[in-house]
Specification:
Residues 39-239 form the GH16 domain. This protein has 361 residues and is of the alpha+beta class. The protein is 14% helix and 29% strand. The protein has one domain (19-357): Jelly Rolls. Strand 2 (61-63) and strand 3 (69-74) form a beta hairpin. Bound molecules: 2-acetamido-2-deoxy-beta-D-glucopyranose (NAG) (2 copies).
Amino acid sequence: MVPNRPNISFLSSPSPPLFLVMCCLVLFFSIGTAEGSSDTFGITTLPFFDGFRPLFGDANCAPSMDGRGVSLLLDRFTGAGFISSDMYQHGFYSAKIKLPSNYTAGVVVAFYTSNGDVFEKTHDELDIEFLGNIRGRKWRFQTNVYGNGSTQRGREERYTLWFDPTKNFHRYSILWTPDNVIFYVDEVPIREIKKVAMGGDYPTKPMSLYATIWDASDWATSGGRYKVNYKYAPFVARFTDLSLEGCSVEPTVVKSAAAVEDICFDAVARLRSRTFSGVTSARRTAMRRFRQRYMYYYYCYDSVRYPVPLPECIAFDPIERARYHDTGRLKFGGSHKRQSRHSVDSGPVDYENSYDQADAR
Ligand SMILES: *[C@@H]1O[C@H](CO)[C@@H](O)[C@H](O)[C@H]1NC(C)=O
Ligand SMILES: *[C@@H]1O[C@H](CO)[C@@H](O)[C@H](O)[C@H]1NC(C)=O
């Protein structure tokens, strides 16, 4: 399971309104890939029971009629989850997901890789976590990475999206190679992590894919201010067109890292040759634009939490850094469209806590 997160407290302080510049950029930058057009990756999908099995809350894990997907439900009795039947040493883990709509504060939908069951003390993990939503507000989500048991060093990044993830299925993917990790939303790379920059905290051991829905009332939405309201239950997250590409390996059988590397040589070479493994300059531009427009928390800029920066955070863009507070939070007007609706004299807005104005009944 996803380890407990430290409480991140987000402060806000006055900052110049850059939003005029930023909202103009919005007009020129087009990021989104429309649903259905995201097929240049040539992904091979597999039926649910060919690659996965229910993990918990079996009664709330409902395979779809066509066998290609599954719905995970959260009601007042339980959440639900599934896991890949195999573990993979490097891979492309991917699914189309449609999130529950309406009021979903406190509801977390997680799509992640982990080996916490096998390597308790030195586990690796790559997360995409959707953080619940108040009706009418944008869904937020975060990515995170842990390696070799680095649970004391969260590497959260938080974002909004350029579409409503409750309306249609969109593809979310985690690519993990020996050299880098890339998180994708549809075909837009949103985050890349390089092993060479991250060092010993980089994930190195076989991981399973997990997907879960659960009640995270204590931290998910606005740091726990808004709880799950079971009046709106059941909350249903739909998954379909799942994909697993990589080297299937059983770490309890093949114990040495050298043996795993040997077995996986060909599969990893295939993975590296795939379209989604190459970050073209067009994709790099799309990633930069996504991050400029939709990222609102970045651990690398959180010097309150990390007075000594983590190794991969030492090189940064000073212009980008200037848009963030020392808490890692985007400054008011830092880039987001929605913020441009606030008038200049409404003062700085703490993006996360702007839920204050929502109808949070
Ligand atoms: C949202 O929930 C409320 C209360 O249960 C319900 O009346 C409304 O129809 C729901 N809206 C949608 C779009 O499901
Ligand atoms: C992983 O962590 C352990 C301590 O928990 C350490 O001894 C080992 O060297 C680390 N491995 C890497 C690759 O950094």
